[in-house]
Each structure stands twice: as C-alpha cells, then as structure tokens.
Automatic annotation (TrEMBL), chain A:
NCBIfam families: OpcA. Residues 324-334 have a biased composition (Low complexity). Residues 306-343 are annotated as: Disordered. This is Glucose-6-phosphate dehydrogenase assembly protein OpcA. It comes from [Kitasatospora] papulosa. The lineage of its organism: Bacteria, Bacillati, Actinomycetota, Actinomycetes, Kitasatosporales. Pfam families: OpcA_G6PD_assem, OpcA_G6PD_C. Residues 51-165 form the Glucose-6-phosphate dehydrogenase assembly protein OpcA N-terminal domain. Signal peptide: none annotated. The gene is opcA. Residues 170-298 form the Glucose-6-phosphate dehydrogenase assembly protein OpcA C-terminal domain.
Automatic annotation (TrEMBL), chain B:
GO terms for biological process: glucose metabolic process; pentose-phosphate shunt, oxidative branch. It comes from Streptomyces pratensis (strain ATCC 33331 / IAF-45CD). One of its GO terms (cellular component) is cytosol. This is Glucose-6-phosphate 1-dehydrogenase. GO terms for molecular function: glucose-6-phosphate dehydrogenase activity; NADP binding. Its EC number is 1.1.1.49.
C-alpha cells in the first residue's frame, strides 16, 4: 500500500501511517528500530532496496531523507515537504517513509524526522554516500545511536578514513569495515588452528579500497607487527599473508568468491568468501547497536602509519616472499592504553 | 592484545562481529539416506557453511547401505540442499563443502565398511586437515543403536586421542522407560565419555525455546509474578495435525506420552519452572533443570488426573482421514495413546499448589506448540456485576511454533458508554519478522556439537528423571482401562476437558 502526501507535515505523515496500518489490519507493530537513510534522488532506490531486504531480519521503520537540490532563488525560498508512505508488502517487513525535502527545509531535516522516530527504539542513521565529516555532530546523526558511513563510496577513501578516525564517536561504524568481517573471522580461525606468533603480514587488494587498509590496520593493531599493503587488480581484497614462526598462512581470493587457505603443514582448503551485497552488510550492521570498540581501535590506528601501498601482486601465489617495507611500528602498548581510555 | 601467551591475538571478547567458528572437524552421518538427514541435517550443514560458521576443510561422511560413489552422495546432498536449505544456494559455498564429502557403503554389521570408514577419516585428516575431530550422528532406528556404537568401539573410531575429540550425537527415543534408558546410557557411555555424548532434542535448538531463558532472566517484569502467588496454572501443549504417517512400526506401543511428553514437554516444563541458574555454564543450567525435575510430583489419583486418547476416523480440515486403528500396520486392538494429557505439580516454594497441565496429541485441531502461564484473577473487581463477565485470567503465552512469539492477554475496556471489560492480546511476533533469518534448530545444534557446547542438549540424568516421572503413568495406563476416543481434527477427547473441569479450569484453545 502506497500513500502520496504533498506539501505535508510530520504529524500528517504520522496520522497517515496509523490509518494505513489500520487499513491493512495489522495494528500491532513489532518493529525494532528506526533506520534513517540520508541520500539523494540518485542513490535512494538502491539504498531503499537494500534496507528493505535487510528489514526481513530487522523489522524497522525506514525513513529515507532525500534532500532535493534547488536550482533557483525562488525554489530555495519555497520550503516544501513531500512524503511517500509504504506499508505492507511494499515495505519489506516494516514501514517505509520517503521524505523529499525542498528548498530551505533541506537544512532542517531533523525537524521532520524527529517526530517520525519509533518510540523507545534505537535509531540508526546511514549515509550510503556523501557522509558528513562528523556524523555524530550532524543534526540527523545526532538523533541516532548508530551512524553508518561508507568510505568505499568516497572520492578519496584513504583521506576519508583519516577523517573517520579524527571524528570517531562511539556508535560510528563504516560499511568498509563490515565488508571484511568474513576475512577477519577466517584469519582468526586460522590462528585458532595454528597458534603461532605472527612476525609480519601483508594485505593485498585493489587500490582505493579502504577495506584493505582497515584489514591491514586491524592486523597491525592486534598483532603489533609490521603490515604491508600491496596492490593488485582486485576485485576487492585479494590476499592476506601472515608470516608466523611456524610458517606462512595465506588466504588467497583471486576471483572475489572462492578463497584458498594455505597453512604450513596442512592441506590447502577452499573457503567460500563471497563479496556481499549491501543488504547483507546492513543486516550485519543492525545486528549490534552498541559501540564497536574494535573498529574504533582499528580506524584510530592511523592509515598513515601503514606507509602507503606498494605495487606488487605476488602475495597470493605465495611464491616470492615480500620483505616488509614501510612497515608500521609495533603499537601494542599504545593501542592498549587507548582502548583502556575509551572504556 | 598479544600479551597472553597461547591466546589468539586476533580474538577479543569485545569483537562480537566475529562468529564462533567450529574448529577443524568433520561429521559422520549414519543413516544418511533417511528423511531427517535429507530434510534437516544436510541443509543445516550447508546453511552453517553459508553463514561462514564451519571451519575450512569441514568434511561430511555419509554411511548407508546404498551402493553409491562419492559423486552420487554429493549429488544427493546437492539436491537436498537446493530443495530444503534456508539460505540461498551459492556455488562457491558448495565447492568448499563438496571437497570434503565422502560416502562409505555398508551394513552396520559389516566390519569391512567400518574399516573403510576409519581409513576415510584418516584420509580426510590428511587431505582436509580435520585434525581427527569427528562427530558421529546416529540417525538410525533405535534397534540399530547398540550395533553401531559397538562397531565404533571395535574399530577404534571412538578412541579419544590426545588433542582431538570423537563425539556421538543421538536422537530420541532415549529408551522407552527408565530401565531401557539406563541401559542405553550405559551402552553409549561405555564407548563415549558422558560429556562427549550429545542427545538431540531439536526443540531445545529453537530460538523461541532459548528465548524462554531471555524472557525470564533478562527482564524484571515477570520475575515478581512468576510464582504461586500470581500464577494460577500452566498449560504446555504440543499438538500435531498429522497422523502417524509411515511411522506405524515405531509409534505403535510407544505412544504420544513417551514420544513427546517424556522429552519435549518435560524439557519445556523445566525451562519454565526452574530457578535462575548462577550462569549459563552448562553445569549450572543442568543443575537447575535437575532440581526442578526432581521436585515434580504426580497426582495421587492417576485415573482422574491423566487422560489418554486415540483418534478416530473423521473429517479433518476438509479431508477424510482414517482413525488410528485403521492406519496401515496398526493392530486393530492397539491401546497405544495418540493423545496424552497429564497434571503435574512441583514441590517447591515457588510452585507448590500450581498445577502444570501437559498435553500432546496427533490429529488435533492444528499444529501448535505453546506454553501458557495463566494468572489468577484479580482478587476484587470494583466493577458492576456483568461488566467483567467476559474477562478471563491474564495470561502470558510463549508460542514455540509455528508463528513464534509471545502473547500477553489482559482485560481492556470495550469502547462505548458502558463499562465493559474484555480480553485483548498484545503480541510480539518472532516468526513474522525473523523467520527468514533465524537459524533452524538443527543448525544451532550441529554447530554446538562441533564446538562442544552442551547447553542445549539434555543430559542423561535429565532423561532418566523424565522417565521417572512418566513411568508410573504408563504403568497405570497399562493396567487400567483403554484410551478415550476423539474425532480426528478436534482438540482431544471430552475426558481431557473433564480432567480440567474437575479443577475448575479449562484448556486454552491454542
């Protein structure tokens, strides 16, 4: 069921939501959170589709805030709110409100969104692109317990990572970080199986992919060893190599879906490591709404301490050994102190 | 950080994104051609792999009589997974899994086959790095249990070697009375140490059942009223709308009470009634469950507080269905119960005097499992007479399946000029919104077996205590009378309604 409201207000939208729900005969709502998507007309469709898919796992009220560009002084003066309400089968398992903010109103989005938040339920803000420099201080971000950005979509991903680190507040998180969960989990499992001290590490992946830097920083931060970042043609991350005292552990994924785990003294094994859709990333993100301290510690490690990527692509094949160059200094102590301070 | 020697520096308790992945291991399924294996076990293994919860190199060995090659077996698993898995089929996940699939052909008394099984396991340890860790899933009829277990012992497959484990997974029935259960436990424990034996009660793997613990022990609002001062009685129902289908050979002589009450319903009772455990450590949890099961007491007059029934030929939901005695392979004089209802009390401070009514049956109104905690009526109602006529007791209903969720029933004013109070319900729907992603019970249970986490598995003491509760009732039924009749598709025999009416109560219609 779809309802279009033009030149409307938040309270009219609320009324329309209630009557729409009554019309389809489901007065009880089991929604667990409000997801605010801040985007433009261009990205709204894909973002909403991903959010609807993930709402099967997290039934939510999805509010899409679209700030319309005003191209004339008159249009800028004419502040107007249009809304599109979707409930029932058109809205995944929740409710969707698409807000279009015209003119001056685009600068006061929070005034529209605040009355539409579900009572007593967490609020998550998501910027698929063009996230504000300081999400927690953004008027819409300030309403949310959890703020999701995506450095992957930024013009200069590595600079963006530094910005995220500088403005980090508990509750911030980034989809570039979410993307590497399966890698992290597989590497942790590999070390479970072969608990050997790691001497150095190499992360190989396409350029301009901040997930590679995040994974490298995570390894450097956790292991306190030099981590080298090397470039390959992708797709995405292609390999991670850990030098341990018992030999080498290589996780190699040349094709973006099936990886091979090679460990010294053990047979090579296939591991499914498919690149995931945005909906899956979002669903993982919504599973926990508490601050992600590991992300904090990782992003604050500092991308500049990785010492820039080097051109090479022999990590995956595991033939030629890379000497760590431009290595990050062991940082165990400092990171530990930082973590203690952030508790 | 990397300070603690031996600890994995990449793991951190705060890093809750990282899932619990099972260590290197493999699963051997006996009776792999059966229904359960195709519809539940294989899809569950695939779904686990798809969620990234299985270790790289995880191996699956099928053992059955069929004359199959590894490829045939892989094809069967492939089809089963495509048809029944919860998560979408992905080629790369399948490739990861299929590398470790093997099939061993043989009978359970075939020594060669078990030798082949042993060499297959050794081969997998080398090729897949399973590290000697294997779980043996006995998805076989109970009469083959002893044979398989003894064969495992004879061929050294159950030997626990340093640094690796061998586990046994067994399905109900865990015996048919106390004596046989003890015998079975002895037999299995003779081969596998008790903490390496996992008894599957798939109900305990269900999200809603685990949610009972969250509901009770994570909230403050229920605890103060969760006792005899406020609770009038508790009804635990597990109804099925199907008949016995092709299970005549197993079902006849066993009956509903042994099939369902002994395991599922008494487990639900234990979770509903137990005290708060000190922690969710398996030992703490089992200690509380044992305590409450020990405190269960049977009514003195078993004749008037227990009922058994048999369904008869009738029309059910638009279909004509045969009565139990007309089913294929059933002795027309059979006294087996297809419906059982019993009343229990729990002798402790919290529950003294609060009856727990348990009922189960086949060919009932619809398929439903629920726990209803029914509260006492308000001691005084300051309304005009007639205003509260339609008001029942408040109730908290935990819907276990289908449509998982929690319902609260309470009184509310009917809109209008007069004061009239009527029951309304407030719903939390788990099923509606979470089904697509909430894992199947078998997924959780298989993962727990591989991780060695015994929390969701009934221990042998629990099984024995449950038989202790049920045995006297079965003995009484053996000696007295015969099952009451109920038409298929109804909510059981009139005698069951009378049983509650004697206490001044009535069954909920679930």
């Amino acid at each position: 069921m779809k309802i279009d409201l033009t030149e409307t207000t938040s309270s009219k939208i609320n009324q329309a939501l209630i009557s729409a729900r009554r019309d389809i005969g489901s007065p009880a709502v089991g929604m667990v959170l409000t997801l605010v998507i801040v985007t433009d007309e261009e990205n709204a469709y894909d973002a909403l589709k991903a959010a609807n898919d993930s709402s099967r796992e997290h039934p939510s009220r999805i509010i899409v805030v679209i700030k319309r560009v005003s191209r004339s002084p008159r249009a800028r003066r004419d502040a107007r709110l249009d809304a599109e309400i979707r409930v029932g089968s058109d809205a995944g398992s929740g409710e969707t409100v698409v807000l279009r903010l015209h003119g001056e109103l685009a600068n006061h989005a929070q005034s529209v969104v605040l009355p539409l938040l579900l009572p007593d339920a967490p609020v998550v803000a998501w910027w698929p692109e063009d996230a504000p420099a300081d999400p927690a201080k953004d008027p819409l971000g300030a309403l949310a317990q959890r703020r999701i950005t995506d450095t992957y979509s930024a013009e200069h991903p590595l600079d963006e990572l530094s910005v995220r680190a500088a403005t980090y507040r508990p509750g911030d998180t980034d989809l570039a970080w979410t993307r590497i969960t399966p890698w992290r989990s597989m590497l942790a499992a590999a070390l479970d199986q072969q608990p050997a001290q790691v001497i150095s590490a190499t992360v190989e992946g396409e350029s301009d992919n901040p997930s590679c830097e995040l994974l490298a920083m995570w390894l450097a931060d956790r292991l306190g060893v030099p981590v080298e970042r090397t470039l390959s043609g992708g797709p995405g991350l292609t390999a991670v190599r850990l030098e341990t005292k018992n030999g080498v552990i290589v996780l190699d994924r040349p094709d973006g879906s099936l990886a091979t785990l090679c460990m010294a003294g053990q047979p090579d094994r296939a591991v499914a490591l498919k690149r995931r859709e945005t909906a899956e990333l979002l669903a993982e993100e919504l599973r926990r709404l508490d601050p992600d301290n590991i992300y904090e510690s990782t992003v604050k490690f500092g991308v500049e301490r990785l010492g820039g990527p080097t051109e090479a692509s022999s990590v995956g094949s595991g033939q030629k050994r890379q000497e760590p160059a431009g290595a990050a200094a062991p940082a165990a102590k400092k990171a530990a102190a930082k973590k203690a301070a952030s508790k | 950080m990397s300070g603690v020697p031996g600890a994995n520096p990449l793991r951190d308790a705060q890093d809750r994104r990282l899932p619990r992945i099972a260590g290197p291991s493999g699963l051997v399924i006996f009776g792999v051609t059966g229904d359960l294996s195709r519809k539940k076990l294989m899809p569950a293994v695939y779904d686990l792999a798809n969620r990234g919860l299985l270790p790289p190199g995880f191996s699956l060995i099928g053992f059955a009589r069929r004359d199959w090659e590894d490829e045939d077996f892989a094809q069967v698993v492939h089809d089963a997974v495509k048809e029944h898995s919860r998560t979408p089929f992905r080629e790369e996940v399948w490739q990861q899994l299929s590398q470790g699939m093997r099939f061993v052909q043989g009978n359970f008394d075939d020594d060669d086959a078990f030798e082949t099984l042993r060499s297959t396991i050794e081969e997998l340890d080398k090729a897949q790095g399973t590290g000697g860790n294997f779980a043996f899933y006995l998805s076989v009829p109970p009469k083959f249990f002893p044979k398989v277990v003894q064969q495992l012992k004879k061929h050294g497959l159950a030997d626990q070697k340093e640094g690796s484990w061998r586990r046994a997974v067994i399905e109900k029935p865990f015996g048919h009375d106390l004596g046989s259960a003890q015998e079975l436990n002895q037999l299995v424990h003779d081969v596998f140490p008790p903490n390496e034996v996992f008894r599957i009660d798939h109900y305990l793997g269900k999200e809603t059942v685990q949610n009972i613990l969250a509901l009770r022990f994570a909230n403050t609002m229920w605890e103060p009223i969760w006792n005899r001062s406020y609770v009038d009685h508790v009804q635990i129902t597990m109804a099925e709308d199907i008949g016995i289908g092709g299970r005549a050979g197993y079902y006849d002589g066993i009956g509903a009470a042994r099939d369902v009450i002994q395991n599922h319903l008494l487990q639900l009772l234990a979770l509903t009634a137990m005290e708060e455990p000190g922690s969710f450590h398996p030992k703490a949890l089992v200690a509380e469950k044992l305590k409450v099961l020990t405190a269960v007491e049977l009514p003195e007059d078993l004749g008037s507080h227990t009922v058994r029934g048999q369904y008869t030929h009738a029309w059910q939901g638009g279909q004509e269905v045969p009565g139990y005695l007309e089913e294929d392979g059933i002795d027309p004089k059979s006294k087996t119960d297809t419906f059982a209802a019993i009343k229990l009390t729990i002798n402790n401070r919290r529950w003294a005097g609060v009856p727990f009514y348990l009922r189960t049956g086949k060919r009932l109104g619809r398929r439903v499992t629920e726990i209803a905690v029914v509260f006492k009526r308000a001691p005084y109602l300051p309304f005009e007479s007639g205003a509260t006529e339609e008001l029942g007791g408040n109730a908290l209903v935990i819907r276990v399946q289908p449509d998982e969720g929690v319902t609260v029933r309470f009184g509310s004013k009917v809109p209008g000029t007069s004061m009239e109070v009527r029951d309304v319900t407030m719903d939390f729907a788990y099923g509606e919104s979470f089904t697509e992603s909430s894992p199947e019970a078998y997924e959780r249970l298989i993962l727990d077996v591989l991780l060695g986490d015994a929390n969701l598995f009934p221990r042998h003491q629990e099984v024995e205590l449950s038989w202790n509760i049920l045995d006297p009732i079965e003995e009484y039924w053996d000696k007295h009378g015969k099952p009451a009749r109920y038409a298929a598709g109804t909510w059981g025999p009139a005698e069951a309604d009378d049983m509650l009416a004697r206490d001044g109560r009535s069954w909920r219609r679930p």
